[in-house]
Amino acid sequence: MEMKKLGYQTAMTGKWHLKKEPAAYDYYNVLPGQGHYFDPKFRVADAGAWPNNFVQHEGYVSDIITDITLDYLEKRDKKKPFFLMHHHKAPHDDFEYPERYDSYLADVDIPEPASLYSQPFFGSEATLGRNGSLRDRIGSSVSSRHPYRSYAHQYGLDSVADENQRTHLAFQEYTKRYLRCVKGVDDNLGRLFSYLKENDLWDNTIIVYTSDQGMMLGEHDYMDKRWMYEESMRMPFIMRFPDKIAAGSRTKAIVNNTDYAPTLLELAGGKVPDYMQGESFANILENPSEAFHEATYYRYWMHLTHHDVPSHFGVRTEESKLMFYYGEHYLPEKYGKNTHTWIEDPSDTYHFEPTPAAWEFYDLSLDPKELVNRYKDPSYADEIARLKKEIISQRERYNETDKDYANIQLVIDRHWND
């Protein structure tokens, strides 16, 4: 809407993943929910009334999304500037790819993270349970560790007797599927970039390549994207804007995804409205060594709803990270007071029990792979106390307090000074 006020024609193509119609865009052509990798349906702005405005396609979703985008660019009003959100579904789990990528990386052995096999000082009671009681229950796995959500099992490797070999095979299959899925995105971006170059749009179009999060690829024997650990929390962000960004320049500035919209609005000549939470980092583009945020905030609130990831929040600075697992769902009245994690009782039945609350602190300057939880190390007491104050400040800034959720606030109060 803000870009439209500045005279831009606006479009949304590909993944939308929201229930409401993207009616604020001049044009949309989006997948329903997550959509399908093959022969997907799309909801199209001029194909009827939402949510029944479906158009069926044949083929692979990354190819189709690019076809739709190229068609839009060709038919747009070429006298006006455009703002286009080109969203790929891939690489969303489970990673599906077209046959043309079957041979890609087939003869390559992908390097494996050491923490896939051993990490004796990682984690906390929140991720391991008391005395390791939840080690096999928290976080879906590449190995056979998790009893019902592991890639070793999903890929039919249960018959491989050697545990490490089973894990190795599962990792190779998992990672190659992921990278083949990503290659489909890369190749289609090549098609999009070629169009921009061939139509004299390449040098006067701001291009932003990013994602909604990173992805665990076996680190800590985790998969999925909801963790605050580096591989998941860090997001790709590449921007091309020849007028302001020197080719090949990099920055260590800490940026939050709430800062994207304010930055693009400023670059388009607009002002950041009061309702937006983020800040523009446009000055960083020309001055990549300048400081921006000292810390950034993260939260995952859907406690064990997906991939058995516990609810947690925290802050990350350039050199350290503090995380608090509070082990409660934000809507206990909806999910039940004890819908937290599976615990097997002596009668071989399952029931739900709360997961422990716990803190984790990682010194990223010494331990970039987050292998040693140093929360109990007294030499970090001052830094941890400072970061706790930062958490409070950031939660208030982003309206992320739990004042309306007594069950969560009770856990926070009880364990804040553990």
Structural description of this entry:
The strands form five sheets. A five-stranded mixed β-sheet has the order 4-3-2-1-5, covered by helices on one side. Helix content is 27%, strand content 16%. It is globular and about 65 Å long. The protein has a domain at 2-101 and 180-216 and 225-286: Alkaline Phosphatase, subunit A, CATH 3.40.720.10. It is built from eleven helices and 15 strands. It has helices at 2-5, 61-75, 125-128, 151-154, 163-198, 230-233, 260-267, 282-286, 332-335, 381-397, 406-415; strands at residues 9-14, 27-30, 41-44, 54-56, 82-87, 207-210, 216-217, 223-224, 237-240, 295-300, 312-317, 320-325, 341-344, 350-353, 358-363. A hairpin with a 2-residue loop joins strand 11 (312-317) and strand 12. Helix 2 packs parallel to helix 5 (163-198). It starts with a helix and ends with a helix. By secondary structure, it is of the alpha+beta class. The model is unreliable at 335-352 (pLDDT under 50).
Summarize the model shown.
This protein has 11 helices and 15 strands.
Could you say what the CATH architecture of the domain at 2-101 and 180-216 and 225-286 is? 3-Layer(aba) Sandwich
Helical segment tally?
11
* Largest sheet: spatial strand order: 4-3-2-1-5
- Strand runs, count: 15
The CATH topology of the domain at 2-101 and 180-216 and 225-286 is: Alkaline Phosphatase, subunit A
Mean pLDDT: 93
**Overall morphology:** globular
Q: From the alpha-carbon coordinates, what is the Rg to the nearest angstrom?
A: 23 Å
Q: Assess the beta-strand content as a share of residues.
A: 15-25%
Compressed to H and E, one letter per element, the order equals HEEEEHEHHHEEEHEHHEEEHEEEHH
Q: What is the CATH C-level name of the domain at 2-101 and 180-216 and 225-286?
A: Alpha Beta
Q: In terms of quaternary structure, what is this?
A: single chain
Largest sheet: 5 strands, mixed
Structural class: alpha+beta
CATH 4th-level superfamily of the domain at 2-101 and 180-216 and 225-286: Alkaline Phosphatase, subunit A
Q: In percent, how helical is the residue content?
A: 25-40%
End-to-end separation: 46 Å
